[in-house]
Specification:
Length: 552
């Protein structure tokens, strides 16, 4: 038996083949080829494979969401064979006597720039379609697996760690669980795993070696154990725990349709955290009552260029419409720190967690902010959207955000575009500064949402991404819980509601403390909704105490 001990990052038991993620080398350089006909054959094969993939995606979209959803993929498939596009690629091949990758990249850039320069907004938006098609052909030329996983069967994905931009490209349908050599329980891979409701383990170290590629592993996301070739006793333990996990899932199904209310009548909103429109399915399947955090930065992370107003509008509108009148809180752009986007060209910082990030970028780059706000307000006409600003530390920042919102609403009104002028505005409480200023900040907004991951990081001076801080990174620390109490008191004193959208919101050990503090809303991963609801329905709010705020 081989046992690798890591740290549990997302609960659950699963077994399956290990698949080691390989970072794709997407660097394209121009080379002179000896056999031009062979290069053209490679190109034709890549185009044919691209069309085959797109037709399969169109068929899948048609089955799951109707004809309209299939049109995008069908259009992409047609563009692969577009006469002008193909002619430009072939001309480059013959004139430059170069490799197919360089010819495709050159043609794709030319066409994307041409469309982006057009006056018509619809045609400008087609530039991103061209980039997508070009990248698909390039991936097939370079042998890069679609979705990052070259396997017909679902796998346990192993890696050193995964950047947010890499997790976005993964084919989620092929992932049973994650095991990482590095990473932390507060990293984005762990957050993705919790959103998907699958097991994840981080901090496995060098014992997790690629020599185990393809071998069946058993993983326990609670204990952090990765086991290969288990002995009979270990196998029995895993099987029993898996059976109990399945029983619990069946029990949780009975919570669907139930109210989020304590035994003594205290109602609490249980919302969900998502990273893309695709995650709405998980929200609905787990009976989430709203979306308390839509991480809009993932629209930027998955793009090769600034997403346009129309692209963002469609994403926000899709989520708002799918939630059918339930609250959807969308956080404005929150990049920087561990979420780097190349085309933003942010300066390298010694300590990016304390640098130019989140709302600081938006206020420094008003056109980027304006584009997002226009998309958000336009989408507000199609559902109950609320807007939330991250990393706020000062009153002047909130007032600048509100001024930007007012300017955008004036523009939209002048253009005759519909929007909801009463869209709620909120801020994230993530720093000691925002806690200390909570009384003044509460007078400016409609709600608070506490980002406990960053609040813990900044309060305890512990890097949330580090895996070796152990007991020093303690989200149960009295200082963190007292900060929550101060925030809630300030919110309620000023007549606004307060929620938690950090990972701590799903911590059942702290539920009674949250009830005693007076938290109004908990936004958690979709998989955490039903267990949290079950715990709420067993609680008695008036008997909950603040004992955990005291030093032991």
């Amino acid at each position: 038996m081989i046992l690798i001990q890591g740290k549990g990052a997302s609960k659950g038991i699963i077994n399956g083949p290990l698949y080691f993620y390989k970072k794709a080398d997407t660097t394209i350089t121009k080379t002179t080829v000896d056999d031009l006909d062979a290069e053209k054959e490679r190109l034709e094969a890549a185009k044919a494979k691209s069309i085959e993939q797109l037709e399969a995606l169109a068929e899948k979209a048609r089955e799951e969401a109707g004809d309209e959803s299939a049109i995008l993929f069908e259009t992409h498939a047609m563009f692969v064979e577009d006469d002008d596009y193909v002619e430009t690629i072939n001309d480059c091949l013959e004139e430059e006597n170069c490799n197919a990758e360089y010819a495709v990249k050159t043609a794709g850039e030319q066409f994307a720039e041409m469309f982006a320069a057009m006056d018509d907004a619809y045609m400008q938006a087609r530039a991103s379609d061209i980039r997508d098609v070009t990248q698909r052909i390039l991936n097939n030329l370079m042998g890069i697996a679609e979705g990052g996983i070259d396997s017909e069967e679902p796998v346990i994905l192993a890696a050193d760690d995964l950047a947010p931009s890499e997790t976005l490209q993964l084919d989620k349908s092929k992932i049973l669980g994650f095991v990482l050599r590095e990473g932390s329980g507060n990293g984005h891979t762990a957050i993705l795993a919790r959103t998907m409701g699958i097991p994840a383990i981080c901090g496995c170290g060098e014992e997790l070696t690629e020599a185990y590629q393809g071998r069946t592993a058993y993983i326990d996301g609670e204990t952090g154990k990765v086991v290969l070739d288990p002995d009979e006793l270990t196998l029995t333990i895993f099987r029993n725990k898996f059976a109990k996990q399945q029983e619990m899932k069946e029990l949780m199904e009975t919570m669907k349709g139930q109210e989020d209310v304590t035994l003594d009548g205290r109602h609490i909103k249980v919302y969900c955290n998502i990273g893309s429109p695709d995650d709405v399915t998980a929200v609905l399947n787990n009976d989430g009552q709203g979306i308390g955090l839509f991480r809009s930065e993932f629209l930027y992370l998955k793009s090769d260029d600034y997403p346009t107003e129309d692209q963002q509008f469609e994403a926000y509108k899709t989520v708002a419409a799918a939630m059918n009148g339930k609250t959807v809180i969308i956080r404005t752009l929150d990049i920087g720190a561990d979420k780097q986007v190349p085309y933003f060209n942010l300066a390298k910082e010694e300590n990016p967690a304390l640098g130019v990030r989140a709302i600081r970028i938006c206020l420094n780059r008003p056109e980027v902010f304006r584009t997002q706000l226009r998309a958000l307000y336009r989408a507000s006409a199609y559902g109950k959207i609320a807007i939330m600003f991250p990393m706020i530390t000062s009153v002047w920042e909130v007032r600048e955000c509100k001024r930007a919102c007012e300017a955008v609403m004036k523009e939209l009104k002048k253009e005759g575009l519909p929007f909801n002028p009463d869209t709620e505005l909120g801020i994230m409480i993530e720093t000691p500064a925002s806690v200390f200023m909570a009384e003044e900040l509460a007078k400016e907004v409609d709600f608070f949402s506490v980002g406990t991951n960053d609040l813990t990081q900044y309060t305890l001076a512990c890097d949330r991404q580090a895996n070796d801080l152990g007991k020093f990174f303690d989200a149960h620390h009295p200082a963190v819980l007292r900060a929550l109490k101060m925030t809630a008191d300030a919110a309620h004193h000023n007549g606004i509601w307060v929620g938690i959208c950090g990972e701590l919101g799903a911590d059942l050990e702290l539920l009674e403390t949250f009830l005693a503090i007076g938290i109004d809303e908990l936004s958690v991963s979709p998989a955490s909704v039903l267990p949290l609801r079950a715990a709420i329905r067993k609680s008695i709010a008036k008997t909950c105490t603040l004992d955990k705020l005291e030093c032991k």
